């Protein structure tokens, strides 16, 4: 209890300092209230809060990290759902020195999703702004983004509208947040199943993997927890590579070291970061880094199949490799490293046993890059494809 109270004191002090130094409002976003109490749509309560938090990140305001807010609210036994009453609002503001709270509620009726939100001043209890959005229930992401635009308009900025979650699949998002609800009720078996379903719907969705590792640990299946932790590490490495490859301008490792030294980083700090993030050294061009990303995708697919016999996740990751190849071929058709990218695509098609595509890519490599270093393997794949595909 002493340690928890000390945490609350430190968080309060931190936000007091922030709000004193900066002119921006210090804002917390609460879970949204499930007005109808419908259990089928209960997952939206936290999802809406998380999505708006991602969409409203801007220099115009200081967003309180949700973990800090929830630690205080859990300790004080407050409700996370909506702005329950003025007294609670003012107390939360006092504890965290949060100047404003964003909360609201949602309701699905006759296939229509209606979400309302309001911004409350935590020093006076005054409602500063309110808005609502209504759309078909299947247009959840559009509702979330429309609400973000209205809230951002109050603060005087236009949000950078992109996916507020790591997935564009509503089914995957639904399964993930259902998993979190099961975790909250200590139902770890159903939580694991929900997280698995989310990954089957969208293998590139990273958060369910983190939840799956945690649920395995609570189930005391430590082998599966270790397996999942390894896969999660690969997902983090993949994100790092994709971010690096897509950065403008691209920075190779040598330039990164020079930049780090100019910022005052010591050789020990640079060495420690390099050891913990070896992917910073991989590749001297964006296309080379994308090739490393394809390799990590292949590792994720292989581990999913070997560890969990998860053919859906493996197939999804191989198709992601194929999609990346198509984008790079369109954007960098003359890059000298391109045949390596296309060869990774060939390996993915081969795993999927889509022989017409194996045949096509083999011929593409043999005709375009006849001196490719792995030509012997391409020829083997080509002969194998002819056993299943006539080439017509």
Task: Set down the secondary structure blueprint.
Blueprint: H1 2-21, E1 26-29, E2 33-34, H2 44-55, E3 62-63, H3 66-76, H4 86-96, E4 100-109, E5 112-121, E6 127-136, H5 140-155, H6 170-184, H7 188-201, H8 207-218, H9 222-246, H10 253-262, H11 267-276, H12 286-308, H13 311-331, H14 338-352, H15 355-368, H16 375-388
Parallel strand pairs: 1-3, 1-4, 2-4
Antiparallel strand pairs: 4-5, 5-6
Low-confidence stretches: 6-21
Shape: globular
Ends distance:
73 Å
State the secondary-structure class.
alpha/beta
Specify Rg, calculated over alpha carbons: 25 Å
The proportion of residues in beta strands is 5-15%
Task: Give the gist of this structure.
By secondary structure, the chain is of the alpha/beta class. 62% of the residues lie in helices and 10% in strands.
Write out key terms for the chains shown.
alpha/beta; single chain; 62% helix; 392 residues
Polypeptide structure, described:
The protein is built from 16 helices and six strands. The chain is an alpha/beta fold and 392 residues long.
């Amino acid at each position: 209890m002493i340690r928890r109270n000390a945490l609350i004191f430190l968080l309060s002090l931190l936000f007091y300092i922030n709000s004193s130094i900066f002119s921006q409002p210090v804002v917390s976003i609460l879970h949204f209230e499930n007005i109808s109490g419908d259990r089928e749509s209960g997952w939206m309560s936290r999802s809406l809060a998380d999505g708006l938090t991602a969409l409203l990140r801007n220099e115009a305001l200081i967003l309180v990290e949700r973990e800090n807010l929830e630690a205080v609210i859990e300790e004080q036994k407050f409700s996370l759902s909506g702005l329950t009453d003025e007294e609670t609002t003012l107390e939360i503001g006092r504890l965290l020195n949060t100047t404003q709270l964003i909360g609201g509620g949602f309701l699905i009726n006759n296939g229509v999703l209606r979400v309302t939100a309001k911004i409350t001043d935590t020093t006076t209890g005054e409602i500063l702004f309110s808005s609502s959005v209504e759309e078909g229930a299947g247009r959840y992401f559009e509702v979330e983004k429309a609400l973000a635009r209205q809230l951002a308009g109050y603060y005087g900025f236009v949000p950078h509208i992109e996916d507020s979650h790591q997935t564009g699949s509503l089914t995957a998002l639904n399964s993930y947040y259902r998993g979190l609800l099961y975790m909250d009720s200590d139902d770890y078996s159903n939580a694991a199943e929900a997280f698995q379903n989310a990954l089957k719907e969208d293998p590139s969705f990273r958060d369910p993997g983190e939840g799956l590792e945690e649920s395995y640990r609570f189930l005391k299946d430590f082998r599966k927890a270790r397996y999942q932790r390894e896969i999660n590490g690969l997902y983090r490495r993949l994100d790092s590579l994709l971010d690096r490859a897509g950065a403008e301008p691209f920075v190779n490792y040598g330039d990164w070291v020079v930049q780090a030294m100019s910022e005052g980083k010591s050789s020990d700090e640079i060495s420690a970061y390099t050891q913990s993030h070896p992917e910073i050294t991989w590749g001297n061009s964006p296309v080379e880094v994308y090739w490393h990303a394809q390799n990590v995708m292949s590792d994720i697919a292989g581990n999913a199949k070997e560890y969990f016999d998860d053919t859906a996740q493996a197939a999804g990751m191989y198709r992601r490799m194929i999609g990346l190849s198509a984008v790079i071929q369109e954007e960098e058709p003359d890059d000298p490293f391109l045949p390596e990218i296309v060869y990774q695509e060939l390996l993915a098609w081969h795993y999927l046993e889509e022989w017409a595509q194996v045949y096509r890519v083999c011929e593409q490599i043999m005709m375009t890059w006849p001196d490719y270093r792995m030509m012997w393997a391409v020829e083997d794949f080509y002969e194998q494809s002819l056993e299943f595909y006539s080439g017509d």
